[in-house]
Each structure stands twice: as C-alpha cells, then as structure tokens.
C-alpha cells in the first residue's frame, strides 16, 4: 500500500480486504504492514444467487467502514473464486448458484466512493505472501492453496500472472492419472481429485472401514468418536501429529502426489519456489517434506538445485491480507 490522501489528512491509512468464500464472506481492516486490525464475517448466501451475495458483501464492508473514519480508507480489495476479467467480471465461481458472469466491480463502485480492486482469490493470497508473507524476498514463485480443493497463483517479477484470459494458475487441474477419480471440473485424474478435502476424507474412511477386526483402533476414529463421516483433513493432520501411522501414511502419500503435480507446473513455468497455503498449510513438517520429495523426483535436473517448498506465514489470514494488498 502506498502513501495517499489518508496520510495527508492525518488519519492512519488502511485498506479493506474481502475474502469471498462459498460459505463465508470474511473481511478485515488491514494496515500498511499487513496487520489485520478488525474483522467482520457473514454468510455468503451463495445458494441465493449473485444479487444476494453482492448485497451481503456490501453490508459486510459497510459494517467495517462504520467503525472507522472513512477518510483513512485507501480502498477495497476483493479476492473471489472463479476467473476474474480485467474489467471486474467474475465468471463461473464454483459452488455459487445461478452465477455465470457478473460484473462485481461495477456493482461495488456504485456502492462505495473508493478505489476498488478485484482479483481471483488464489492470486490475491499469492500477492499477500509476496508483499507481507514468506515470499517477500522472492520475485517469482508459485503459490498453492491446499484445502477444500487445490488452487494456485503465479507471481512473476513481483506481479500476478493471469494469462491472456485471466485463468492462469489452476494447478489443481494438472492431470496425474488419466484413469483417476472424477474431478468436480468434469475431468478425471486431476490432482485436486486425489488430495482435495473430499477425496482425502473419503479415502481415509475407506481405509479405516477395510481394517481387519482385531487391529488397533486408529487415532482418527477416536477423534471423531467412531463417526467416520466426520473425518476431515484437520482431523487426519491432528492424528498424524499424535503419531497415528495410518494418518501419517495418508498425508505422506497426498504430499508426494501434490509434489508430482507441482513438478509439472515448475517445469512449464521455469520456477523454483513454491509457497503452500490453505487449510493444510498447518499440516506437520513431514507433509512438506513429502511434497518436496515428490517434486524433486519429477522436476527437471536444471531446476532441481533451486527448488524450495515453503509454508505460508499468513495462514488463514492470507485471503484478507492478500485482498487488502491489492490496494497499493
């Protein structure tokens, strides 16, 4: 973020960062150092259609602005799922009902007399890491969100690379097995269909259900009280931290598979640095070791010496901080 009218007026400058998720809108007041000063959240209401989502977002932003002197606001940054065009149209965000192509920028400019910036959510989070996170000293890197699904953002020369049509960075749809599971995108064998939240949870449940009688009970089963439908990656990660061998094996395999997909991306883009964010960025260190092992086993020899896999330092704040960092 840069100096502007807010600094001249004597008000402490800040930006509003908005992380638009399929279930929750998270917004925050962020200072120029990337610190979140205040937060607000609301249900996205994605099943009600785009008009309801936009009204909810506007209400959430107004709630935050009502707590601060608006003269101090440098602008509003928004990270949204889906392809975001240069003129602010959000196209086909996954899990948003009735949403095809909506000009979010135009709608928000009618609501607020402030500079407004909108970007794909993974790209915004990548920029957050570039400006305020673990990637500050790197000009070029690949950012990967690993959680419910697998998304990505590409930073080249400290700028977001969007591709000619705004859709670059979809590392979750790198194919690692053309006969693999059906992905939400309609294709088969995408890395997301192997290591996304839904698959990991299902795979873990199947493994536990197939265990022979008499075998010691997995820590995963204990953590969900025997209800295997409650399994999610955070449970698997916690069980692994407590030494559960089944959980460790599942996460190691997932990490290596992600490494294979990332190797393809690095080979194409000639990159060396990978930053992993999202829910599974909090996974134990051995998972990151597995990612790097898988990556190094598939990446070109010319790239291998410089390869590094880094854990996001912004964690769950990456969406808000990244969106706010668009206001510069």
Tell me about this structure:
With 328 residues, the protein is α/β, with parallel strands linked by helices. 36% of the residues lie in helices and 21% in strands. It has 11 helices and 13 strands. The protein has a 5-stranded mixed β-sheet with strand order 3-2-1-4-8. Helix 8 crosses helix 9 and helix 9 crosses helix 10. A hairpin with a 4-residue loop joins strand 2 and strand 3.
Secondary structure layout plus pairing:
Elements: H1 5-8, E1 14-20, E2 24-31, E3 36-43, H2 50-65, E4 73-80, E5 83-84, E6 89-91, E7 101-103, H3 104-111, E8 116-120, H4 121-132, E9 141-146, E10 150-156, E11 159-161, H5 191-195, H6 197-209, H7 219-223, H8 233-241, H9 245-269, E12 273-277, H10 285-298, E13 308-311, H11 318-325
Parallel strand pairs: 1-4, 4-8, 9-12, 12-13
Antiparallel strand pairs: 1-2, 2-3, 5-6, 6-7, 9-10, 10-11
Helix pairs in contact: 4-11, 6-9, 8-9, 9-10
Record the strand order, biggest sheet: 3-2-1-4-8
| Count of domains | 2
Q: What is the count of helical runs?
A: 11
Main beta-sheet annotation: 5 strands, mixed
N→C terminal distance: 4 Å
By helix and strand content, what is the structural category? alpha/beta
Binned strand content: 15-25%
Radius of gyration: 20 Å
- Residue-averaged pLDDT: 92
Count of extended strands = 13
* Text of the CATH class of the largest domain: Alpha Beta
Sketch the topology as an H/E string, one letter per element.
HEEEHEEEEHEHEEEHHHHHEHEH
Helix share, percent: 25-40%
CATH superfamily descriptor of the largest domain: ATPase, nucleotide binding domain
Low-confidence residue ranges: 1-10
């Amino acid at each position: 973020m840069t100096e502007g009218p807010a600094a001249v007026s004597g008000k402490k400058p800040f930006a509003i960062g908005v992380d638009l998720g399929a279930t929750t809108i998270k917004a925050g007041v962020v200072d120029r150092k990337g610190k979140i000063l205040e937060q607000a959240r609301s249900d996205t209401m994605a099943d009600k259609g785009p008009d309801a989502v936009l009204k909810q977002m506007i209400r959430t932003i107004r709630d935050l602005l009502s707590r601060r002197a608006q003269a101090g606001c440098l602008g509003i940054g928004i990270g949204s799922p889906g392809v975001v065009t240069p003129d602010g149209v959000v196209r086909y965000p996954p899990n948003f009902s009735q949403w095809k192509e909506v000009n979010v920028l135009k709608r928000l400019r009618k609501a607020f007399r402030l500079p407004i910036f909108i970007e794909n959510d993974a790209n915004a989070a990548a920029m957050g890491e570039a400006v305020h996170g673990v990637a500050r000293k790197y000009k070029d890197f690949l950012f990967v969100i690993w959680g419910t699904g697998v998304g990505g953002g590409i930073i080249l020369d400290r700028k977001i690379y969007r591709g000619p049509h705004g859709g670059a960075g979809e590392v979750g749809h790198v194919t690692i097995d053309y006969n693999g599971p059906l992905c939400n995108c309609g294709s088969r064998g995408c890395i997301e269909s192997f290591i996304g939240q839904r698959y990991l949870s299902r795979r873990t449940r199947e493994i536990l259900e197939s265990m022979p009688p008499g075998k010691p009970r997995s820590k995963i089963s204990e953590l969900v009280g025997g209800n295997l439908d409650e399994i999610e990656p955070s449970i698997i990660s916690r069980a692994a931290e407590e030494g559960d061998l089944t959980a460790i094996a599942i996460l190691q395999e997932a990490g290596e598979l992600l490494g294979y997909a990332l190797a393809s991306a690095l080979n194409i883009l000639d990159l060396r640095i990978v930053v992993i964010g999202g829910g599974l960025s909090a996974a134990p260190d051995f998972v990151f070791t597995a990612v790097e092992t898988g990556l190094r086993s598939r990446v070109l020899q010319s790239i291998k010496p410089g390869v590094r896999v880094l854990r996001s330092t912004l964690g769950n704040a990456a969406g808000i901080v990244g969106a706010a960092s668009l206001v510069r």
